[in-house]
Design brief:
By secondary structure, the chain is mainly beta. It has no helices and 13 strands. It has strands spanning about 10-15, 20-25, 30-35, 45, 50, 55-60, 70-75, 80-85, 90-100, 105-110, 115-120, 125-135, 140-150. The relative contact order is 0.14.
Length: about 170
């Protein structure tokens, strides 16, 4: 095993498969690792890691282009945003680094078709928060109707691309 903080809560791998990130909800941080390029899958801690988050980070996602990382912070009711340096895996706090959600964001996702919209499931407010990504800076701004009602206390959400989808065929 690899040390992943005190209370690991979420994991994400960048689109190139070179880096993995783990949130630690007890230490309020993201821990970054480089994945070995051989078949062992050995992890090496990144220089500058861990990276600070808001309070009680529960979820992490990387937008489809692999340029930005977002962390849902449950107790802060925010999403922290970071720029991902694909050369070394380092995370730096993005412009407008905290996006405010309603209370208790538990999960964060970026819609994969265009990579322009971010959503959080907000457990305590029974809603979904929406933000628009600036593709040049990674900064988030609220969409016009930023908070969407949902069923009671959503735990997570997922976004799927519109249009052609992968097909799975199961043969007995």
């Amino acid at each position: 095993g690899f040390n992943a903080g005190v209370a690991p809560s979420a994991i994400a791998i960048d689109p190139t498969g070179k880096y993995v990130y783990v949130t630690d909800k007890a230490q309020n941080e993201v821990i970054g690792y480089q994945i070995s390029n051989n078949t062992t899958g050995f992890l090496t801690g990144l220089n500058g890691s861990p990276y600070p988050t808001g309070q009680f980070p529960l979820s992490i996602t990387i937008e489809p282009r692999g340029k930005y990382v977002y962390v849902a912070n449950y107790n802060s009711a925010t999403v922290s945003s970071y720029t991902l340096n694909l050369a070394d895996g380092a995370l730096t706090t993005s412009a407008s680094s905290n996006f405010t959600t309603t209370t208790g964001p538990t999960c964060v996702t970026v819609e994969p078709a265009l990579g322009l919209y971010l959503y959080t499931s907000d457990f305590l407010n029974s809603s979904i928060s929406g933000g628009q990504l600036n593709p040049n800076t990674g900064a988030l701004s609220a969409v016009a109707t930023s908070f969407f009602p949902s069923v009671a206390q959503p735990i997570c959400l997922v976004a799927v691309p519109n249009g052609a989808h992968a097909v799975q065929v199961i043969q007995p």
